[in-house]
Amino acid sequence: MDISTVWEKLVWNRGGKIIDLVLDGVGGLPDPDRGATELQVAETPNLDRFAENASCGQLEIVGPGITPGSGPGHLALFGYDPLQQDIGRGVLSALGSDFDLQPNDIATRVNFATVDEEGRVVDRRAGRIDTDTNRRLCKKIRDRVQLEEFDGTFFFQTVSEHRAVFVLRGQGLDGELTDTDPQTTGTPPNPPQPRNEASRKTAKVVQWFLEKVGEVLAEEHPANAVLLRGFQRYDPLPSLRDRFGLRGLCVADYPMYRGVSRLLGMDVVPRPGGMKERFEALRSNYGDDYDFYFLHVKHSDSRGEDENFDGKVKVIEAVDGLLPHLTDLGADTVAITADHSTPAVLGGHSWHPVPLAIQAKSARVDGVSRFDEYACAQGILGTRPGLHLMGLVLAHAGRLQKFGA
Amino acid sequence: MDISTVWEKLVWNRGGKIIDLVLDGVGGLPDPDRGATELQVAETPNLDRFAENASCGQLEIVGPGITPGSGPGHLALFGYDPLQQDIGRGVLSALGSDFDLQPNDIATRVNFATVDEEGRVVDRRAGRIDTDTNRRLCKKIRDRVQLEEFDGTFFFQTVSEHRAVFVLRGQGLDGELTDTDPQTTGTPPNPPQPRNEASRKTAKVVQWFLEKVGEVLAEEHPANAVLLRGFQRYDPLPSLRDRFGLRGLCVADYPMYRGVSRLLGMDVVPRPGGMKERFEALRSNYGDDYDFYFLHVKHSDSRGEDENFDGKVKVIEAVDGLLPHLTDLGADTVAITADHSTPAVLGGHSWHPVPLAIQAKSARVDGVSRFDEYACAQGILGTRPGLHLMGLVLAHAGRLQKFGA
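^ inputs. structure came back:
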């Protein structure tokens, strides 16, 4: 039995507020020249003081050796077993672009792309067109593409740069289709192929749609085609409220994280802006309406992806400077952790566990005095799956009853 | 697969003796004034020497964030997955009151209570009548209540003070009944309602029984009624002997722990008396008849429940003084741990892990030199589920064969 289903049964209508601060990809590896990780190099008096008054440990987010994508990483932190739940990126992108996705909608990620005269893909991202161009093209597609043969409707929404979302809504649709994105250049896009009988109709509608989009974009340059990948039907998950009695609020800038939050029934603060604005948005929304606050910091991950060790250090230091805005809110339980590691020396996500610190009156303060990978690993919480976080914060906030007599 | 089923297959007819000393609720939290837990404040030269010559770690008894009741806590320590096994308190009370419960008996917890002239509950515990009065009333009920309409028999046994146990034995009974205890005053007891078709007969028998008990107790005061809760059919678990080849002996004063032990097929020393007497009872029963000895100390939990930090410290120190009586028996493997934490500062059970120390010739002694929550957490056994204990003590005692060729 998945331990999170046990928490569901033990949740009661009491207890304090919880804040989860997720520093995306903050776990790192030592830079060979400095012999220290991004967290160790950064000057972080506030994070260190936080750890000093916390229970510390490390989370192995999905499992040993498993490098989490952002979706599974966050699902785990929110108490949803990422090995049981499979959310496509299309669904997440749609949810995150503030699109009002409905159950059974088929959502798909879109890249605007460049194809040559023979229809072969030349650039899978159309030179990373700017977001304004993207908006213009999406509107053009919405205005000009008529799907008379289809008894439903479609939506085509900008995400950012070359990225968009395509949604089909109607009867008898299914998401088991192969991608049209060939993931390479020099070949034409693939036709959408149904993976099962239930998806035949969907494949046909997508094919019609692509033909018409091709006509509409024919004169455009460089974005004269679209590539689709990650078709998926939207089957909503049980919400944080239904499962754990938590009225949740998400403060995040990026579609992905807003998407996961919306998928779990959290309210999402309208795009708050930069990091400082996000900490301020948390403050101004802190109050009686929510029990659970999720504050997401993206750039610790982005700088890691860019192999920018010093940039990641700077993001960490900026978070450190803002931390008092969060810790002085007086929440019963505050957890600081990450959804996965993104060591700058690797330039990508990794499987390495991430540091964890939980502050609460009922926390066993363990003498760890630095918020970094090595110090926290010595903490009293030990090494645990990412899924454990939700149970721990619920318990520390007094939100779980006793199990059995 | 539950790991304990693997141990079952590996157990052989060899190996040494095991003693588990369970200090109920011994895990704590720091007292704000002293900045130290009950175990840290206590003077415990013997426990510390024990840890110094042991492998140490901490057990998260049921799971992250989960506060174990005593039943699940002990089941886990004995190698039974508490998430798979569900034992009602009625069954445990009956087993613990030295009543010879049989498979398929329906057992129920009883409170003697006071009702007013309109039959409304005035006191759910009848002013906590003394145990002698309880005995007299139980005998009166046994002598005077005739259940002619029922083709089986009933038992009605004193536990202590206002608490008793009611058992029905017969054909076609089931335990899926609602409680008659309204859990409040000012309303009459609820009628017993069957939760399924199989329980209809049982509900009828219980209703007859309650009417007759009402007549028998009419002239009594303050105990003029009984409240029933936690109906359950007794489905015995596979025994420690069947599963792990252990002939077990329980030395415990409280019904609950004697109940769990009997449920798992252990012999139970007749009520041994105080703590010193329990250590002596273990000594005098130590020998060829048993492989596994479970010694239970209740008051570390009770003092924690009473928010009595200093009282809990004293219990720990008393255990420490008696510890040599246990360690000089020469058992191959001795484990000291708890079934859950009961921090005095919380005044109740908690989810926090408990310290563990295992002494055995084959143990990796790890340099931990204090038996407390923080020191043991640094030990070589790390942080593990409570269920792991049985596998570890079996292995240390040489009772498990190699897995695979």
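The first strand of chain B starts at residue 18 and ends at 23. The two ends of chain B are 20 Å apart (CA to CA).
thumbs up if we can close this ticket
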